[in-house]
Amino acid sequence: MYKDKYTMMYKNKVVGILEYDFINHKFSFEFDKDYNDTPPYPLVRWGESMDSKIVEEKDIIDWLSDRVIQECRPEVKEVLSKLNLYDYDVWDIVRRNYGMSGDDYFWLTKDTNLDYKTFNTRYCFYNDITPIKVPPFPIIKYPKYFEIQQIKNGQKWIMEWI
Length: 162
Hints:
The chain has 162 residues and is an alpha+beta fold. It has helices at 57-65, 76-82, 90-96, 121-126, 145-152, and strands spanning 3-10, 13-21, 26-31, 106-109, 140-141, 160-161. The longest helix is centred in the middle third of the chain and has 9 residues, at 57-65.
């Protein structure tokens, strides 16, 4: 009911749907049945098949964590500032940068009409292209603790973008 949904892409191919239940703080992922390209490690580990694969939440969290700057890096405060974030939160960082990594061509989006060649960090770097879109990208503002309690008690939640 209160889930924030993103489409995971590999280049311009739909890999699957990543959902975050922001009331219960749980992730889930389901592969697109037509996707048969590069599997996203660690959602799929060596020797596993994507066919009927049930992705565990810990693997989703590992995948997300691999896509952000490590919290111990000295430049992390500067990065957070550029992303308009005040605290180090892996999921917020991933949402602000579409989950892009310099290591591969996977990314997350709410708009599957975007072309990765116009903004993907890795693609643009290796092809000497200036991206047309750069982070921070708008994200949904999740309710805080007391707002969550009110939602659980039946109060309607109004979605806001930040």
